[in-house]
Amino acid sequence: MKTSVWIAAMALCTFGPANAQLLRKIAKAADQANTANDIVKATGDTGKAVKGKVAGGSGATGMKLNWSEFNQTPAVTFNSLLYGTQVFLNGGTRLENYTATFVPGTKAGGGKVDAIREQSEYLKIKVYKGDQFITYFEYDGGQKYDEGKKIKYGAPSSRYQINGEWVGDTDVDLKKWGVGNYRLDFVAGDKMYYSFDFEVAKVTNNDTYAGVNEMYVARGPWNNYAYMNYADTGNLIFGFYLTHEEFKPDPANARNTTKGVKWSVKLLKDGKPYAQHYGNGPNKAQVRQAEWGDNQCAFKTVDKPNEALKFANLTDGSYKVEVTVEGEAKPRTYHFDVKDKKIVQIAQQDRAKNTDPTHLIEGWNDYFWMKLEK
Fold first, then answer.
1. Neighbours of 211 (CB within 10 A)
2. Rounded-to-integer distance, Cα 107 and Cα 186, Å
3. In 3D, which of 112, 174, 120 has the Cα closest to residue 144?
4. pLDDT-derived band at 211, boundaries 50, 70, 90
5. Average pLDDT for 103-124
6. What is the C-alpha to C-alpha distance for residues 154 and 364, in angstroms, rounded to an integer?
7. Least confident span in 90-94, 101-105, 304-308, 352-356
8. Distance from C-alpha of 323 to C-alpha of 330, rounded to nearest angstrom
9. In angstroms, rounded to a whole number, what is the distance separating the alpha carbons of residues 191 and 356?
10. How far apart are CA 325 and CA 283, in angstroms?
11. Cβ atoms of 225 and 95 closer than 8 Å
């Protein structure tokens, strides 16, 4: 442990709560500085790192975990990544509410991890722009379920209140770091086990009378993926993501930044009409400005228009999904196959076919992901 971090840790034992919180913040800053130093040593370039070299390899400084606790490699559910990774139009972010799977809760030398007291050595997310390290956030990891196979990354616990004033960061200042490709490295103990890549873009407005002249937006997997979900009701549910990047979607009311968008879905089997979204007429989504929203619908088959299509009733064949979105020039199309009455997972989701566990699409047993066809 570096001297500065050791001094701060020792001080926590002797000072009051407010000072202790401040010293924890100092310790974190020192740890970040040490990580940055490790990056320089690894590459010889200030602020640069070979992907995985520091965050996932010898540069990881957390406790050693029992990585053989589960038979499966750890991952983060794809739907929680798309829900929890938020970029706000003002250049702020929110990185929380992730669900990780098969992350060890025991140490290599035996004994359980104390997710609260040992959080500084347990769960982190390290943030990179390209290969440049920016910062990291700590998570307590105290919420587990499904026999410990799932663990929740709630809100970052990197922010503290001292004398009634909040200090420390829980987001990334995109105005400072700018547009480009970003990466979140999920770290547990001594290992980086998962990465999530996305893009940050900026849209500008030349209207000098407008209240907002620039928007920061996230792009990437939200644009490119949709899913079939095995709902608790037994219904087959389709879901995809929408946002809009208009500064004034409602000409009559500049304060209204939400946009109503009509959309509909058709499901073809072996090239023939099979089902469509449940209900009469198109669906209507209330799409938020510069924020991705998840939109879902059930299906009704062409021969049973009064009944919702059950997941268990899917029969073997080749299926095509056509999503028509108001304002888009052509339908979004996706494809999936059913074999032995089960949806065939795409290679990136299938653990038997995926070649990079750090980028596995984790759907658990109820989300089946489809990639947008070009």
1. 11
2. 18
3. 112
4. confident
5. 89
6. 19
7. 304-308
8. 9
9. 15
10. 10
11. no
